[in-house]
Amino acid sequence: MTLDEGGRSCSREGGSDKRPEHAPRVVDRNAALRGYSAPVEYFMDLVDLAADLAHGVGGVDRVSLFGSRKYPGKVRSDVDLLVSGPASGDVLVDFRESSRQYQPLDLWLEQGGSAFSVVNGSMLAVENLSLIDLFPVADLDRLGGLRRQRFRDDYEYAMSMAPLPRAAVPVRQDNLLVTRRLPSILEDDLSLSAQVVVDVVRNAITAATRMRGDGNAKRGKGSHVTLSVEYDLQNLMELVLASFLPISREPFVVKVSGAKRSADFALADSRIAVELKFAKDGSELSAELKDAHAVLEEYLRHPGVEVALGIIAIAEDVRADVNDIESWTASRGHRVALMRVVQVPRALMHAFGT
Fold first, then answer.
1. Which of these, 49, 60, 148, 240, could form a disulfide with 54 (CB 3.0-4.6 Å)?
2. Rounded distance between C-alpha atoms, residue 5 and residue 26, angstroms
3. Model-level pTM?
4. Residue 102 contacts by C-beta under 8 Å, 6 or more apart in sequence?
5. Whole-angstrom Cα distance, residue 145 to residue 125?
6. How many Cβ atoms from other residues are within 10 Å of residue 179's Cβ?
């Protein structure tokens, strides 16, 4: 039930004293003066809100407050809540859209050490956030008077975009503590960046093939590349890309036909998600393409992903219509999924010297 400051029941809509299930616990100090019309000012108890969110969404392990609402008097600011547990951000979007009163909420899904805004796709590193726990156990000592937050329903609460560095180029320090920025291979246009990634992998396969016939390269003891299974391709991709940009392996999980699937890689602050496939014959090719399409479409639903890139490696003697494979695309708003082909010589599929 919702109460005004005099202890009388009131409501945001229609004068009913019934609070919708999982709606925020609201105290409207001006409702009596306005005859129970739509209030201008209302309050939400963040601890109760976090419990409502956990109950309404399901699978929530933790809800924490961060951002500008950790400071008093921020009536015009949105409320940043970090949510851990759900496999998908869609359930958080549904919760936020279930009530007008939730419009100020910017819900962030925690996955793989990163926080993704389900509202605008921004990404933040969780380790850099100063959090106040709200659920399952609220840190009431730190929360103090911030528990009860004030809002105005005549405001449009715009979610702040977290700036992402161009090309997400990593910074490292040497032993003299001199910071050096690594060279970038990415472009501002992430679709072009995805093609650059494909070219790097393709060139690595070409170089590995050349080394099989190079006299000096043959002197190596254990450094020859063999691509027998999909995981060999993943290892090669990580080796050739890690020097140029941050690359995360299995950074998040999606559900495909009810089964949990880990993304192979994420690049550029998780704005590019990559799925690798390997087909050694025609029957494998059909099955792998079908699976890749389903997985990539789910990647587009993950917060923060702007490009879902599928790379399918095909044995060079397998008949495949490359143009047809690469013509497939999928989209979700401004987000896009792409398929690209790299060919693998049979020689690389066997251990060196066999």
1. 60
2. 11
3. 0.54
4. 24, 95, 96
5. 27
6. 8
Helices 230-241 and 190-211, interaxial angle, to 10°?
Answer: 110
| CATH class of this structure's domain 190-349 | alpha beta
Residue of higher predicted confidence among 184 and 126: 126
Instruction: Express each pLDDT in 78-111 by its tens digit.
Output: 899 999 999 888 889 889 988 888 889 999 999 8
Q: For residues 151 and 22, give the distance between their C-alpha atoms in angstroms, rounded to a whole number.
A: 18
Max CA pair span of the chain: 90
Give me the phi and psi of 186, to 5 degrees please: -100, 160
Query: Which residue reads 């917060």 in tokens?
Result: 303
One DSSP character per residue, 50-106 reads HHHHHHHH----EEEEESGGGSTT-TTS-EEEEEES-S-SHHHHHHHTT-GGGTTEE
CB 316 within 8 A of CB 344: yes
Burial of 115 (0-12, 13-18, 19+ CB in 10 A): buried
Where in the sequence of the chain do the CATH 3.40.91 domains occur? Answer: 190-349
Residue range 143-175, pLDDT digits in tens: 988 999 988 877 777 665 544 443 333 444 444
CB 313 within 8 A of CB 227: yes
Amino acid at 83: V
How do beta strands 265-267 and 272-279 pair? antiparallel
How many CB atoms are closer than 10 A to CB 277?
A: 22
Amino acid (1-letter code) at residue 180: R
**46-81 as b/e: b if 16+ CB within 10 A:** bbbbbbbbbebbeebebbbbbbebbeeeeeebbbbb
DSSP 3-state percent helix, strand, coil across the chain (nearest 5): 30, 25, 45
Cis (ω within 30 of 0) for the bond into 136? Answer: yes
